[in-house]
Amino acid sequence: MPPGSEVPYGTLDLLVLKTLASLGVQHGFGIARRIEQVADGALALNQGTIYPALLRLEQKGWIASEWGTSENNRRARFYSITKRGVKQLAEEEANWARTVAMVNRLLDSRS
Amino acid sequence: MTGLRVLLGRAWASLSGRRDERVIEEIETHLALLADEHRRRGLSDAEARAAARRDFGGVEPARLEWIRQRRLPSLDAFAQDVRFAARRLAADRVSTAAAVGILALGVGSTVVMADMLDRLLLRPPEHVADPDRVRRVYTHLEGGRPHALVTFYAGVEHLRQGLSADLSHITAVMREEIGFGRGPQASRFRAVTHSGCYFDVLGLPPHRGALPGCSRAHQPDTVVIGHAVWQQHFGSREDVLGRTMRLGTRTYTIVAVTPPGFTGVDTEPADIWLPLESRADDGLFQEGWRTEASYAILQVLARLRPGVDIRAAEARATAVLNAGPSLGWADGKTRTSYVRLGDIAPARQPGGTDEVRVSLGIAAVSAFVLLIACGNVGNLLFVRGLRRGRELAVKTALGATRGRLFRELIVEAALLALLATATALALVHWGGAALRALLLPEGALAGAGVDVRLVIVTILVCATATLVLGLLPALRLVARANLTPGRSIVRERPSLLLDSYVALQVALSVPLLAGAALFGLSLWRAAQVDFGMKTSRVAVVSTNT
Predict the structure, then answer these.
(1) What values do phi and psi take at B174, rounded to 5?
(2) Which residues in chain A have their CB less than 8 angstroms from residue B27's CB?
(3) Is the ipTM of this complex over 0.85?
């Protein structure tokens, strides 16, 4: 992936779920920062897009949220992954692995 | 399931008008945390805030995308239209109240009259088995108007024997009022006094006990009570059978309770059913009542055998009646009485009744009132629309599409329809009972209150009328080409449609006004009738025996 690429379509939910599963309870800023750190500059995350994604995951019951206080003493919404979210993450990971394997096979056959 | 839950949650967020403070606060916290990071790297306060905004991306697009995800945009727009329409209707409350009131009155009166005609003419009595085969016996002279056959007991017996091939059961009935109880607690019951096979003619299932019939020998001094009497006078007691009632001068034993909703087959409801023989023994008739023509006070109900042709049965009944015991004519001449086997409902007697004629007349007037009401409401909504010409023109200039304007107007019409329907339903509920009490005998056609079909018809008629009336001005306004600020949208050229519309309204209103004036005049004349005495100090007294 070239440096500063856009987040691949449809993968933001997977990235958010995985981040929450790894780090535990986080606010939106923390989640965005973590994704950028792991990408190590390979991903240009438009941080504003994280909030609609968080709401979408919460509406589906895969994450839960509650108000808390951030490190700069501001009120912030803290998100955590639910049991259904953990199950969903496993499915998403398996799907991603299948997709990558399929694309790899396709590329190998062409070369 | 998850999809449905998400959809419902988004719909609720749209309808409940939840605001977006949450995402604003979250974004502000996010920006503050980003700015703190930049400050720690040595940027000034202003530079740190600017860098934070740059890193975050568009704040407003993120907020709008969050709101779009939070709610259902189409429902949001609809809720906004509803709130706007409610404000418009409240702002113009005089014409709103007038439109709602006029339309509700028109629809309500028409539906109530339709319901009364339905109850009088169309609905068979409750619980009567195969009601088409249950006939009321009428007679008429050549060219005369049919009336219920009134005969004496021997006449009924003669018909029973002569028509055994056509009739499975026949019964003689008479109506009377009879006192119940003693002293200050005494009351009166409306009784049907009948001969043996009454309940077999009707094919009625009992609610409690065993109804007397042809195959069960009539026990003397027994009474069948109606379901309402069982509830009101015996508290729905399970052990009501075998209990006694003091009726008139005798004591009767309760043997059965009729099913709920059954109040007899006459226009006036009945409370109790008594055997003819017991009432005769009670002194109502003298010795020899079974054969004497002077006791010609009985009407006749009969059940046809399956498959019997009514016209053929009527011809045979005519022959049997004229060959049987006759009451005779005062002038000694012989005349042929023709038998008609009419419907069990008295309102559907051959030739019709005064109640039905009056009800049909009032129903026709109600339909006229509805048409005029629709016309008035149409005018009212149209004038309202004209007053909104400037507002619509400004909205068009600001970029509102015709579709958007049309949606706004149609939501307003729908809200008006909702208000008018609710008012009409209230009128049907309260006004229906009052009208029945005014036009029919006490308690007649009482029963199940507001019928579900009546509610559905009211909703359909009222909602359709209001929507159509609201839609026409909306279409006309939105379709006009001159929706431009500063230009009048009042029509410049005469419209044949509008002129015809006004002419029709006048044509409907004039006869109605004339009819109302004549009705008022008749009432005034009726009040002026001279009885030859002072009626204000005359009382009618009835005794409780």
Answers:
(1) -145, 150
(2) 48, 51
(3) yes
Phi, psi of A70, deg, nearest 5: -80, 175
Report chain B residues whose CB lies below 8 A from the CB of A47: 30, 34, 55-57
The single-letter code of the amino acid at B449 is G
- Tell me which chain A residues have a C-beta less than 8 angstroms from the C-beta of B9: 59
* Structure token pair of residue B508: 């409907």
In which residue ranges of chain B is pLDDT below 50? 448, 481, 488-490, 492
Which long-range contacts does A33-40 make (Cβ < 8 Å, 24+ apart)?
A: none
Q: Is the dihedral of CA B410, B411, B413, B417 positive or negative?
A: positive
- How many CB atoms lie under 10 A from the CB of residue A68? 11
Predicted local distance difference test score (pLDDT) of residue A5 = 61
Looking at chain A, the number of H-run helices and the number of E-run strands are: 4, 3
Q: Which residue of A lies nearest to B13 if distances are taken between CA atoms?
A: A59
**Contact (CB<8Å) B2/A61:** yes
CA separation for the pair A70, B27 (Å, rounded): 13
Q: How close is the nearest chain A Cα to the Cα of B33, in Å? A: 7
Token pair listed for B503: 């002419």
List pLDDT tens digits, range B464-506. 877 777 777 667 666 664 555 555 444 545 566 666 766 777 7
Quick one: how far is CA B462 from the chain centroid?
A: 14
DSSP letters of A45-66?
Answer: --GGGHHHHHHHHHHTTSEEEE
pTM of the full predicted structure?
Answer: 0.57
- The pLDDT score that the predictor gives to residue B481 is 44
> Of B271, B290, B230, B220, nearest to B250 (Cα)?
B220
| Least Cα separation, residue B54 to chain A (angstroms) | 9
Strands B222-225 and B250-257: parallel
Contact present, B253 and B244 (Cβ < 8 Å): yes
H/E stretch holding B255 reads strand B250-257
Distance between CA B180 and CA B195 in Å, rounded? 21
User: Do the strands B134-140 and B147-148 form a parallel or antiparallel pair, or are they unpaired?
Assistant: antiparallel
Task: Tell me what the pLDDT averaged over chain A comes to.
Answer: 87
Distance, C-alpha B122 to centroid of its chain: 13
Residue B85 is classified by DSSP as H
- Between strands A75-81 and B134-140, the pairing is unpaired
Non-local CB neighbours of B314 within 8 Å, separated by 6+ positions: B338, B339, B340, B341
- Looking at CA atoms only, how far is residue A76 from chain B in angstroms? 6
Alpha-carbon dihedral of residues B471, B476, B481, B483, nearest 10 degrees? -70
Task: Provide the greatest CA pair distance for chain A.
Answer: 55
For residue B56, give the nearest of A47, A71, A76 by CB distance. A47
Give CA separation, B358 vs B120, B146, B427, in Å.
12, 18, 21
The answer for residues whose C-beta is within 8 angstroms of residue B436's C-beta and 6 or more apart is B116, B444, B445, B446
CA angle A13, A15, A18 (to 5 degrees): 105
pLDDT at residue B216 in the model: 67
Burial class (CB in 10 A: 0-12, 13-18, 19+), A102: exposed
